[in-house]
Amino acid sequence: MQPVRQPDLPPVLLNAIALWADATTNADSARRADLLRDKQTALVGDGDNGSAAGFFTLVNKAPQHVTPLDVKNWQAYLEQMGLSPASVYARISRLSSFYKWLMDEPRFRQRIPINPVDLARPKAPKAYQSEKSRALSDNDARTLLHYVRSLCSQDNLSAVRDYALLRFYFATGKRRSEIIELTWRDIALTDEGLVLHTQEKGGLYRATEVLDIGVRNALIAYLIASERWDDLEAEALLEPGDPLWLRHDRAAKGQQAVTSHGFVKMLKKYAQEAGLGDIHLHQTRHTVARMVGEDSGDLHAVQTVLGHQHLSTTRVYLERISVKRDRHSQAIARRLDVDE
């Protein structure tokens, strides 16, 4: 793995950051390349193209000379750059993780006596308060799906794939990695739909039935378009460990799995073209939670769909994304005898 190169930072620091990123990133994650890049960028990104500069690029100090005030100044800089509270907190947490790693390494321990983030860490933002936690309206979700479907053709395999992916996300409410990392062994087709076998947050495995036949049909349409389905035998031409979702860009080599970063990039493009503005993939999960909550009125039903271990998490989730229905304003207007 190559560190993010910055000409004015010492190689020993760049190498240490590369080693930290490698040691603290799950080797089996399908998003490993994205996570490694994000971790290194947070610490040594050059700030080109209007992006926020990494911590050590900005402070231009060796790790042992960094103070809590440097961390607070970086926080202020990130906020001025327009990063959300959650993004600022995540970047500062990565800096803290780097210092913890340094202090656990015998070769660095004596030179790094304290973690400067400990005295400067901002308060964690409240969960589900960012823009990405907003649920899409039914109309926006419908517009997105219809637009991507309109792009599907034999000449646009990416759109066929992405339409199937969106059907999976909207049908299940699952997290980003739980769908994008699916392999063929995780899928069981049935006459009524399909069953997903996924590893969820916390390491738990769960089988999820999907009775929306449109999800099954979208998947088969994608497998046919990507020449991985035998029409005569009505079966997939995949090995159990083969990735379900492939790259179809010109730079793809063989049957290379699409990354969540690649899919999200396409999703944002579709949303802009469909007139929806900027959206986040996680909003599909919030949209499912909203719909299930509105249709069932049952908090436990939402908890089951989202796979939350604690009902309190689901309650906070719904409080943020649900639209409070007006049951009183018309009665109040009548009592006050005011015009419509």
The fraction of residues assigned to DSSP E strands is 5-15%
- CATH topology label of the largest domain: hpI Integrase, Chain A
- Rg (C-alpha, Å): 23 Å
- Report the uncertain regions: 1-7
Could you state the CATH homologous superfamily of the largest domain?
Intergrase catalytic core
Question: Would you tell me the structural class of the helices and strands?
Answer: mainly alpha
Bulk shape: globular
Order of helices and strands: HHHHHHHHHEEEHEEHHHHH
**Which CATH C-level class of the largest domain is it?**
Mainly Alpha
Helix content: 40-55%
Q: For the residues shown, what is the average pLDDT?
A: 85
How many separate domains? 2
Termini, distance in Å?
A: 66 Å
Which CATH architecture of the largest domain would you pick?
Orthogonal Bundle
Give me the side-by-side strand order of the main sheet: 1-2-3
Summed up:
The chain has 15 helices and 5 strands.
How is the topology of this model organized?
Blueprint: H1 11-23, H2 32-44, H3 55-59, H4 68-80, H5 85-104, H6 106-109, H7 138-150, H8 157-172, H9 176-180, E1 187-189, E2 194-199, E3 205-210, H10 213-225, E4 229-230, E5 235-236, H11 260-273, H12 282-296, H13 299-306, H14 311-321, H15 329-336
Antiparallel strand pairs: 1-2, 2-3, 4-5
Could you explain how this protein is built, in words?
It is a single chain. This protein is mainly α and 340 residues long. It has 2 domains: 11-104; 131-336, Intergrase catalytic core (hpI Integrase, Chain A). 50% of the residues lie in helices and 6% in strands. The chain has 15 helices and 5 strands. It has helices at residues 11-23, 32-44, 55-59, 68-80, 85-104, 106-109, 138-150, 157-172, 176-180, 213-225, 260-273, 282-296, 299-306, 311-321, 329-336, and strands at 187-189, 194-199, 205-210, 229-230, 235-236. It has a 3-stranded antiparallel β-sheet with strand order 1-2-3, covered by helices on one side. The protein has a two-stranded antiparallel ribbon with strand order 4-5. Helix 8 (157-172) runs antiparallel to helix 10 (213-225), helix 8 (157-172) packs across helix 12 (282-296) and helix 12 (282-296) runs antiparallel to helix 13. The termini are far apart.
